[in-house]
Amino acid sequence: MNRLQKLLILCATFLIINTGSVSAISNPSEDDQIYGFEAQWAKQFNGGYVTTAPLIDNATLFVRTSGMWVGQERPQVFAYELNGKELWNHTNQNATQHDMSPLKIIEAGQGFCGNWSKQLIIAWSDGLIESVEPLTGLRKWQYQSEVDVWGITGSSAQDEDKLVVTTRTGIVSLCLADGSLIQNATTDLGWRNGVTITETGYLAGDENGTLWHLSREGNLTSYPLAIGKIRHPPLITDAGIVIHAQGDGQSTIALLDENYSIINTYSSGSSPAMPIMIGQYLVTGDSSELRSFDCSNNCSALSSLTFTTNGEMAMGLDGQFMVPLNTAQGGWKGFTLVENGLLEHVRGFQPGFSTYTTAAPAVYSEGDSDWLVLANDASRMVVYWRGLNDTQPIEDLDENTTANDENNNNNQILLVVIFSSFCAMLFMAGKPEQGKKFSILLILLVAIIAIPTLSTQWSNKVDDISADIGIEDSIDGVEGEWNQSWPEQWQGTQIIIIEIDGQKQMMGGYSGFDNVLQLTNQVAIDLNISITSQQSDIGTYVTSFDGHQGQGWEFFVNGSRGSFSADNVAIEESTIVHWIPA
Amino acid sequence: MFQALGTHGPVLSPMTSLVLDIGLLVAAFWLLATPSKKSLGDTLLLLTLVLAVSAARVLMQPLPNIQPVTVAALIIGAQLGARRGAAFAILVAMISNAIIGNGWWTIFQAIGWASVAVIGSKFAIIANGELQRNRLFVAAIASAFVFDLIVSFSIIDSSTSIVSFLTYLAHGIPYDLLHALGNLTFAVWFGTWFADVVAEEIVVEEVELMSEESIICHA
Fold first, then answer.
1. Which three-class secondary structure state does DSSP give residue A157?
2. Do A440 and B185 touch (CB under 8 A)?
3. For chain B, domain boundaries
4. Under an 8 A CB cutoff, do A459 and B164 touch?
5. Structural fold of domain A488-581
6. ipTM score over 0.90, yes or no
7. Contact with chain A for residue B182, Cβ under 8 A
8. What is the pLDDT of residues A256-291, one digit of tens each?
9. What residues does each domain of chain A span?
10. Which residues contact A70 (CB under 8 A, 6 or more apart)?
11. A&B contacts, CB < 8 Å
12. Chain A interface includes B2 (CB < 8 A)
């Protein structure tokens, strides 16, 4: 094998892999059609992870990378326009630990310590706190906090004219105008222990499970809770203060009263995520479950779903909150709290790449456009857009960060032409063996490019043939066609039948639901039927209706047995879904 | 035991997953514990192959159903025998799935690739120390379908009828063909080289073993 051949193999391998990954991100393929969103551009950062949510403010996107840096690479903060044009990036050469402190925008204002303009706060794992101008990245001020192996990993908060930050060794408050130190209190060591502003001062936890209260007058008080490590900003609820503490192999969700005494606790799974409040409801997550609590009174447990999440959760669009799935499959799942605060899985967001995921998404709405930014532990970020009209918002795309359909297709055609020519030359040059080798590579390349389209068409064909020759896996009593006894207004709409204990409960007249699970969830609400579902690597499975679990549940769409999980079976406007016990 | 039923079989509880992994590991070590003596170098070679092919599988994961493990299992089965080929297959399935995603399907993938290794050992791909390229190509294509069929069994549960299973298989034919094409490409490009790599190392080990035995005899 000569050097040219080796070089070509290398190029081919690179191009094949590159073609696959780029098309997954940039082509609005089925995978990328995330419920009306279309992939606009993607960015693969050089190293590390994205473990904190990107931030969108005034049509500017900010994102930071994190990691344990041992080579030349270091963590960075980037700012982009929403069309993908990079505004600036900033590298911290001294930060070598995990940078998990969320980026924070501070609006312009004035206070006792001076006036300040709009600023982006970046806190680093080397203890540096920076205030930069959001559009240029130019530094306004900085403050160096104490470091013990690492520096800042928790979230910061604004208290009028002060920025309050939990450092590695305590709590500091800085003047937003110039970064001058106002307060500096020493606590035990912390990690990812963000700060919460209260009426009386600041609350933060530490690795020893102690809750600290720093009053604005400077009085520091500790409250040892002995329930595990406190790795999130304490949550203030109507029922009291909530902490989800990390223990050994388990975690404890504790409700504290105004004196910081534990009122009640709830044991849960290991490695808790950062809990969030949605109205009166508390949502917690860990390696085992996602849970909801009603914190209007005493934070009573409401519901739980099997799930693995260990990072951030955040509100998304359409009234959902989005939770990263921290498994090899990764991605994000959208949930809502239905009546009485019960958790309900709505849909999954799997943007064509699968890896562990801990960062919450960023969402942004402007005019008729909604933006969704997803970034994962593989340091890959994808920006999605949806609009009320069909006009693409991005016309002037950055060539380095965007590959549109046309360019992608051109690249693929160019690649095929080059390879074909090369194969032909080898045959003509009397080297048939080499020609065959490159020809097989060419065929494989074409097959990889064509397989998504081919397999979809093939599957449709298989379904058509199955229907034509009547080898449907029919089950007696499954409703697959219009029934004359149904209300006339259900004609042409989405209809669902749920058969529980031999009793058929049916509803119709629905429209606009994209998949079986969405429709089922809505109908269950309307019929007041409780649903439990099971997350798995390949989708969501309904495990019980009204507590009836049996041997499992299966569904039929227009009489055909569902081949995939309920959230992965698309439905049309005129569809009959029939659920029966397996 | 099982937490739920899914399209790819039951979703495993952590305990079941642990038991499954231990079972596969025991199977792999049992297969490696052959009556004949194996040198440290021999074991290290197999371990290196396991790690390298696992890494290749993980790296090629973005490519749909391109499985470098299949041809590797075929050739290792042919060169090192069915037992070590099957052990290789089990270990690669376990290690690569630890990164890609572990589950009920791991056991079927392990069985699938172990079966491919057995095919490799029985199909006379290596004859008189020479790789029979045409036989390798045929076996590489056939192995794709054998492996995919075995892995497809993972979807079967009490509610799966023959018709629905056949429909499922029919849906997957394009990906089976792509697997076969990928195997053929690997075999064409790397088959001879990979067979030589495995064979060369064994020869060296055997020479060393023979030398040691010779020294012992002289002593």
1. strand
2. yes
3. 2-218
4. no
5. Ferric Hydroxamate Uptake Protein; Chain A, domain 1 (2.170.130)
6. no
7. yes
8. 999 999 999 999 988 899 999 999 999 999 988 999
9. 1-30+404-455, 488-581
10. A96
11. 102
12. no
